[in-house]
Amino acid sequence: MSTPTSLGGSGKEPVGVVGIGQTKHVSARRDVSMAGLVREAAVRALADAELGWADIDAVVIGKAPDFFEGVMMPELYLADALGAVGKPMLRVHTAGSVGGSTALVAANLVAARVHRTVLTLAFEKQSESNAMWGLSLPVPFQQPLLAGAGGFFAPHVRAYMHRTSAPDHIGALVAYKDRRNALKNPYAHLHEEDITLEKVRSSPMLWDPIRYSETCPSSDGACAMVLTDRAGAAHAPRPAAWVHGGAMRSEPTLFAGKDAVSPRAGRDCAADVYRQAGIGEPRREIDAVEMYVPFSWYEPMWLENLGFAKEGEGWKMTESGATELDGELPVNPSGGVLSTNPIGASGMLRFAEAALQVRGAAGAHQVPGARRALGHAYGGGSQFFAMWLVADEPPTG
Amino acid sequence: MNAAPSHKVLSAPLVVEFPFTRSLGPVQSAFLTGLRERTVLGVKASDGRTLVPPTEYDPVTAEELRDLVEVGRTGTVTTWSWNDRPRRGQPLRHPFAWVLVRLDGADTALLHALDAPEGPQAVNTGMRVRIRWAEHRSGAITDIACFEPDDSVPSTHRAQPHPGEFADPVTGIVAEARLDYTYTPGRAQTRYLDALTTRRTLGERCPRCHKVYVPPRGACPTCGVPTGEQVEVGPRGTVTTFCVVNIKAKGLDIEVPYVYAHIALDGAGLALHGRIAGIPYDQVRMGLRVEPVWTEGGRYPDHYRPTGEPDADYETYKELL
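^ Those are the sequences you sent over. The predicted structure of the assembly is below.
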């Protein structure tokens, strides 16, 4: 394993998030090109930071695999739209976790004092792509996958339920909560005004044990952030979210001994972030979590994987209401991936929403007094993990 | 495709083909709709240059560009390359030149094809060319069928402002993408596939952690060492977890509902994926003991069915989910 990166540790430049922008996520943005879509998020992030294109030293962009939209290396043609001409521009590529990894690459460039102010952005135009095709090419000689994306993850959900004796209704609770939270987030894709728990529970069973209402939508959207150093943050018009820890881990999709319910890469990644941020008791010390939950049951699964609940007790935490917006540890106040899923941007949305919480800028889905928040992303077959912990004060030391 | 002898590594063509849709946004919409109307539009950049094809954002200042202008239909070749063997989907079927053409009134060049029946000796940088319009135009770059030689003198044509507004504008296009690969599964998978032709499942054991990989990948992903020792596993196994699929997956001709399961074959270090049948779908359970059912000519078992043995204890397969 490589030497862990350490954001917020001594000797590193403190990194502040001073600008956040996102598009209103919808199923199809037919009015804009890909360039127009990313531009919209970037312009909003710059406006939030009250900066212009000339203030940006480098651009770090992420999206899901090229196959999704069929544009090879889209970052090349997006350079004009992102003011990247004549500047370093990097593309990050870690499947569904890419939005998180992209933000971390940008943060590390500032922490290492390579650049002072970096624009980072992630996007997906799912309406112009075919995720299913991109994910399951008919490879010669290989047995075709017998189920779609949900079918791939559903057996892991069943394994979790079996392992923890979780009752059947937990998944529906998560979906009902996240869809209600989304109603408070004007940028969320799904705004199901008439959502009820009964509607979730009676929605069609797609890949038993996963119901339709427990799956994420397919969205067009982009998210952008401006990250800067201590001096940059001092000039920012609004409070910064400070990065106290950030880490990535990966592991193969399939190997003997893989724990798909609670992957080691996820546990190790969280432990590294907490170590960097000096967090000893995550459940007590963290005020809000934006975690990557594309299927509702992943909330209790990740609660355990990320150390918020003991093994086997994540579902109890969800059932108790602790993860509700007014609970002890609100999870996905924004409505999460279950309400908005422009795949490449989904991870960055988690990171950005965590930052909005500690900046006190989350609007109607603000967790009152949130001072520390975790942003989490995963991708591939529970293969890539990326997380950051942000706080309202700069790191000390 | 029949399996090759064991000393020969398998390979097969893999064609990836898909029609992608593209939303154009205001500038590309005007440009492509213009081509449909035999009008070539560029855009004025912040430094006064006319960019053809137009871009949505200024390459120097990053500002939004919206001042459209109309340029000429004749131009000058700024550089070129001869294409001796056109491939499918290219503008002309016979040999032609790829050219960059700076249209009269433009400051940048457009990539297209030049029809030069007399061959590469008739093509040179600086030559004058004109647009040959396609007979049927739909609002696509192919509305310009190609360029052809022109005897006009270099023109002093100046770009004229254009509102970029047309009746029934094109707002999206479909871009056909196709990639041709030759796929080879490698030596380990070839050995595995060879054994499957005799309905035997051969895994490979890691010399370090002793786990048996099925299908083998040629190396242990945990220890990072090659695997070589072949080990026959199965044919029976245990359903370690599963889901009931209620929606038809595209391209799969299986009646729903059906059970998609992780199956740990006896002796294997991890589960593989398969379909369970021969039992009502709602009676499938974790721990169910199953065996493969083959159909004539199948590369893989068609599905797995219950053996009738007592269910396996969770402790025996809890690390094989």
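Confidence is low (pLDDT under 50) at residues 1-5 of chain B. The radius of gyration of chain B is 31 Å.

Shout if you want it in another format.
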